[in-house]
Amino acid sequence: MADTSFPSGTRPRPMARWYSIGNARRFLWNYLRGLREGHPDLRPDLAAVDTPADPGWEPWVDLAPAQEGTGESWVDFMSDVGDGYDGVHTVAYVSEAPELAQLQGADRSLPRAEAVLFGGDSAYPIATGAVVRDRLLRPHHDAREAWRQLARPWLGIPGNHDWYNDLRGFREVFVDSELDGDAGDPHRHFDTPQRRSYFAARLAHNWWVLAIDTERTGDLDADQVTYFETALRYAGAYPQPRVIVITHDPLPHPDRPAGTKSAPPRLQGLLDWLALQRADVKLWLSGDLHFYRHDPAHGRAPDRIICGGGGAFLHPTHAEDPTPAGVPEPRLFPEPAESRGFAWRGLLFPFLNPSACLMVAALYALTFVAASHVPWLGAGVFFAVVAVGLLLSSVLFAAREGAVFASTAGMGHGLAHAALYLFGATRLQSEPHGWALLAALGGVAATTLFGVYLWSCLCLFRKHRNGAFSALRIPHYKSFVRMHVDPKGELRVYPIGIRQVTGQCRAHEGQRARDAHAQRLTPSDPAGPSFELIGGAPIDIGR
């Protein structure tokens, strides 16, 4: 029987509700805690306890065969993982299968990978220890137990949602984990060999993975640069190591147009140092965007893969910037036409996000009642002050998309909300139960207006991509990549797409964990998740 006791007290969770009272409270508390305690850069602290003076110290994790230059390596990469149980468990279930057979377009059956590399954002909305256990460890553990597989190495880097909690949850799992157990224990829960928030890993045939933690600044710290340089030199990787670079945020194209985003100084310095040492960077992997995208090698850029489909809600692919002339078109999953169809759901914002509707209704009602308690100011003036607050809030919300956009679309959106509030408050001021009518009608009208704003900004201007699709909470179109270094030293990438998440665990709001366990997938279940090779063919990176 599968072990269902791990971890103690965990429970399957539904997808995070981004526009909810609870989520607003969490981020507000985290923001206030940051003001009080600050957000220190913890990377030097981790480096200080992982030094060459430690017995058996090696600045890399060895995933290569025992006899270097022979054999092969199989590793999985997934990112943006810890969200609703159904989505995370579906990806884990496919990844943990003994083999992936009958993949149309694949040249062979794919055996289970020997290790899993995570590209950041281990859990949502804020990666505390409890949330990481519930949203990441629980579904992966259940999937592995369903197939009766042994633990395999887990290596990861943090993303912004890990740093929101100052790496507390990330460290509990990947750095200071107490869940490893003894290496020979068949019931071992997890194998997490890294001791920093970044890592270097050696694969077969002098292939190397350099996984970089860019923290909140988007750049490396000095210890991290030294670590990667030391790892390659200490291991005798030269001449010409073959390198796979992993970052949470996608790296900017080296042949980018003038004026566009460039790599931060220390990160660019590391890439320049690799080029100087004749290290051959063959592949860039990243997450952050919750879909699959492959940009073929072009100019000075190697193949680039974004694969943030490990569990989080889907991001739109139809809002990606147009491909410049002369640059190969990317492969996207889902297709832009499918993504565009999903966007229409945003017009149902109040029904998809009832908690947001309740928050706005409460704001309308409270301000309406409060207006009668400030006779020295006058109800009309009070309503005007609230309307100005709504206007400013809308402009600040749009500011993340740029100052020009905030002063145009954001201002227009804010004026519409201010006018809606003033119209309702003044018209219902003399009604006996005006506050209730304003709350009921205003809550639905204001959130519908917000949904229309998000939809129009996304479809017309490619703005508010995250805000628009986080409201939809689409669990489907998951993905991960399986990489194979063959006996000849050739790297081949198999991107695995899962169009439909299975709902066998049915971890809906308010349902007990024991109910979910009773409906867990098993290997013999004919309704198990179907998967495909994205693009119908593997990606040949070469050697």
Characterize this entry briefly.
This protein has 16 helices and 17 strands. The chain is an alpha/beta fold and 543 residues long.
Average pLDDT confidence is 84
- N-to-C span: 44 Å
Main beta-sheet annotation: 8 strands, mixed
Task: Please tell me what the overall shape is.
Answer: elongated
Give the strand line-up of the largest sheet: 1-7-8-9-10-12-11-13
Q: Topology, pairings included?
A:
Blueprint: H1 21-37, H2 43-48, E1 61-62, E2 73-78, H3 85-96, E3 99-100, E4 110-111, E5 115-118, H4 129-147, E6 154-156, H5 160-163, H6 168-175, E7 199-202, E8 207-211, H7 222-234, E9 242-246, H8 265-276, E10 280-286, E11 292-295, E12 303-307, E13 331-333, H9 336-343, H10 349-352, H11 354-371, H12 379-399, H13 403-427, H14 434-461, H15 465-470, E14 478-485, E15 491-498, H16 513-518, E16 532-533, E17 539-542
Parallel strand pairs: 1-7, 2-5, 5-6, 8-9, 9-10, 10-12
Antiparallel strand pairs: 2-14, 3-4, 7-8, 11-12, 11-13, 14-15, 15-16, 15-17
Helix pairs in contact: 3-4, 4-6, 11-14, 12-13, 13-14
